[in-house]
Design brief:
CATH architecture of the largest domain: 3-Layer(aba) Sandwich
Strand order of the largest sheet: 3-2-4-5-7-6-12
Strand content: 15-25%
CATH class of the largest domain: Alpha Beta
Radius of gyration: 20 Å
Helix content: 25-40%
Distance between the termini: 54 Å
Shape: globular
Number of domains: 2
Structural class: alpha/beta
Amino acid sequence: MTTITFGKAINEGLRRALAEDDKVVLMGEDIGTLGGVFRITDGLKAEFGAQRVVDTPLSEAGIVGTAVGLAYRGFRPVVEIQFDGFVYPSFDQIVAQVAKLHYRSRGTVRMPIVIRIPFGGGIGAAEHHSESPEAYFTHTAGLRVVACSNPADAYVMMQQAIASDDPVIFLEPKRRYHVKGEVDLDANLADARPMGVATTVAAGDDVTLVTYGALVQTAKDAATAAAEEGVSVEVIDLRSLAPVDYATIEASVRRTGRLVVAHEAGEQGGVGAEIAASITERCFEYLEAAPVRVTGHDIPYPPAKLEQYHLPDLDRILDGVDRALGRPNSLSDVSEVDA
């Protein structure tokens, strides 16, 4: 095992994929000479050359469009969208072409494209640099959408995404880039947990708490805090947002009888809404309370000085757990609490 940062784990995953398959090509704005704004691709151009680690013009539509052409020719392009809010100029390419070409061609065309998107807030950045656009892509048939939360998963899942014949939206929680963890750099991918399978990162019996990306650590902290009050919270790291591993969530909810879903994106039409609705359909007779969502607010991402009030934190997630348990909470009627 080697202790490295989340960002370095992605770098090592890319390096291994480049070394093992000469059809893997990286493209993006400033990813070559500079190594990317977050230095995720640092050193890869020097090692593999400018033909395989390509600095592109500042055109997200052009980057993704070029990736489509490369995929047609048998390559496995990995493109970086510099920040989450910059993905929108390439939205037409992704949802109208990348997601549909395999289906449209009756399976004769494959689109093994990985689209890396640093996403989410918590870094004090400006507008278009702290967004959570995942719901747009989970709604789009033909795309896989994944979000890793720790260095070990980042290393393995990057390689799994590149090996997939399906297009993959690879969401990287940017405020976790400098967090360290143990990674087995010699891991055999054949033995690794499949990319589409969720992980239970904390066992519990009273409430099931589902989340992904940067909020996994916050959820684990909430489970620890809740345990001090005698509440047992099971935390599930979703890992894959499309498809969703409902089997893992269902098994947990059938034991706990309660569900809380947390994410940074807004509540309306979000991943949490879909999971809450699906689990209600699948586990209605097991639920002791209505599912609870703890999310960002339904507003454009706020200025950096206000993002602490926008992002779900320990207190808001614990409040969601209280709501699921019917304990006094932020939505309780004052008279009910006094009673």
